Structure formats: structure tokens, C-alpha cells
Amino acid sequence: MAADLARDTAGGALTGGSAPDGVIVVKIGGGADPEQVLDEVAELAAAGRPAVLVHGGGDPADELAGQLGVAHRVIKSPDGTHSRRTDEAMLDVLTLALLGRVKPRLVSGLRARGARAVGLSGADGALLTATRKPAIRSVQDGRTVLIRDDRSGRIEHVDPTLVQAVLARGEVPVVSPPASDAEGNLLNVDADEVAARLAVALEASALVLLTGVPGVLADPADPVSRIPEVGPHHLEEGAVRGRMRHKVRAGLRASRSVERVAIASAHRHRPIRQAMAGAGSWVREGERDE
């Protein structure tokens, strides 16, 4: 599979037919330099190719938390996965960072490149409806405890109508957490999961999760240990660790219906095209849903 995809895309621009037809959903982390990603997304828009940019904002949220004196705490799940502890104060910080710092930079960056962009959160237009996790298991000092004040949610429903309307106008939706529950309460949701669920709802042809490393690494400290194609067994065998487990889980679920799912570096020249040429890690769970 990876060889076929690399052959399909090698040497061609995304706008020249080398990328799969249909919507491309691209996710970029808040800690990555977005400039080259914005170049390519603007290029897609100029060529009339529908693209959605999803973003996180972990590093800017941590920076803002420090400025506001809000403690940054981490939840370590029993399986070794790490996530942000989002109490009420941290949810405010995260929302401010995503919607007040990261998103305006991305929207204005696209505009500077000639692309019209619209900033959206999951709470806008009931785009993402989530349910709050009542209790979260966390390993602290060797003991597993239950955290009950967290304002994180699990995405239950995606209504892509608003995003589709933006795409229909030839504009670029720039989407991020938070989501909201059925009563309108804000909840933090994982940005990789946002991208994956949105890609499925839009019947996207490709999902590209851009990060700070070359792909999924067997050894997080060794960039040469990239795994070219990732499946469920890599999670089960413990080959994927830390924050990357979130990305792989999201990618695997999306791969049931999205034709191409890749995890790759945001720091390469033309990172989206590089990902589509197989420079990162392809993610596939198994046979796709019909």
C-alpha cells in the first residue's frame, strides 16, 4: 500500500492531481511552526481543492497558563497515555489560547497568502457534541486514582453542516476544540480525534496528522525508527507510547472509511505533500467500511 501511494504522489504537486480527490483534512499541533502548512493549504484553496485545517494548542495553552498562574497538570492513564488535566480554570485557559491566540494566527496567515479562512470551534453550530467523562483513571505516585473534576469530553456526534457551508464558498474552515455537550457546556476534546471524526463526517479522501516527529517512531528518541505503516497490533504490543497513542487511535478509527490516513512531520518542506508521498507513517486498521 505505502509503495503504491508513494508512486501515485511522488514528484507531483498536491494541486496537480497527485492527492486523492475530495476533502483533505489536515491537523497541526499547537507547538509546530505552521508556516509551511499554511503555504500548502493556501495552495489547495487557490486550486479549488477543499481543505480543512484542524489545530490544537497545547504549547500556547501551557504558556498562557503560566502567565495566568494556572497549574498545568497531567493525567497519566494506566496504559501510559498522557493527557491534559482540564479542570474549570484550565478549560478557560485552553479556550482562550485556542480561540484567542492560535486560531487568529492561522486565519490571518491564510489570508496573507490569498486564502479566505473561517475560524470555528467545535461548539459553533453544534459542530461537535460531546459527553463529559464522569471519572478518569490516573496513575499518581504508583496508585490509580479517579479524577472527577475534569472538563474533558468524548465526541458523540459530528454535524458537518457548518464546515460544508464554508467549503462550498471556496473558503478554508479552521477548526479546533472545545466542543459542547447537549446543554451547551464547553468541554475539552482531543484535537486529533476532532480531525479524525470530522474527516469521517465529511467523507474526506485524506486525513493528515502533522506533528513534531517524522511519523510513528518505534523509539521516540530515534527519528530513524519510523514505522512506515501502523496497525492495531502496534498499540497492542506497546510499540506506540505516550502522546502518540492518541494520534494512532484517532487515525485507526478514521481509516475505516477515509482512504488515506498519515501521521507525519510538520517541519518538512511541503509537509502535506511529503506525507501523501509516504514520508511519514500510514495508518490503517483493516478493511474499510463500505
Features:
single chain, 290 residues, alpha/beta, Carbamate kinase, eight-stranded mixed β-sheet, two-stranded antiparallel ribbon, 9 helices, 16 strands
Task: Walk me through the structure.
The chain starts with a helix and ends in a 7-residue tail after the last strand. It is built from nine helices and 16 strands. The protein has a single domain, classed as Acetylglutamate kinase-like (Carbamate kinase, 3-Layer(aba) Sandwich), CATH 3.40.1160.10. A hairpin with a 2-residue loop joins strand 7 (136-140) and strand 8 (143-147). The protein has helices at 2-9, 35-46, 58-68, 88-112, 161-168, 191-201, 232-236, 244-254, 271-276; strands spanning 24-28, 51-55, 74-76, 82-84, 117-121, 128-132, 136-140, 143-147, 153-158, 172-176, 179-180, 186-187, 206-211, 229-230, 260-265, 281-283. The chain has an eight-stranded mixed sheet, sandwiched between helices. It has a two-stranded antiparallel sheet with strand order 3-4. With 290 residues, it is of the alpha/beta class.
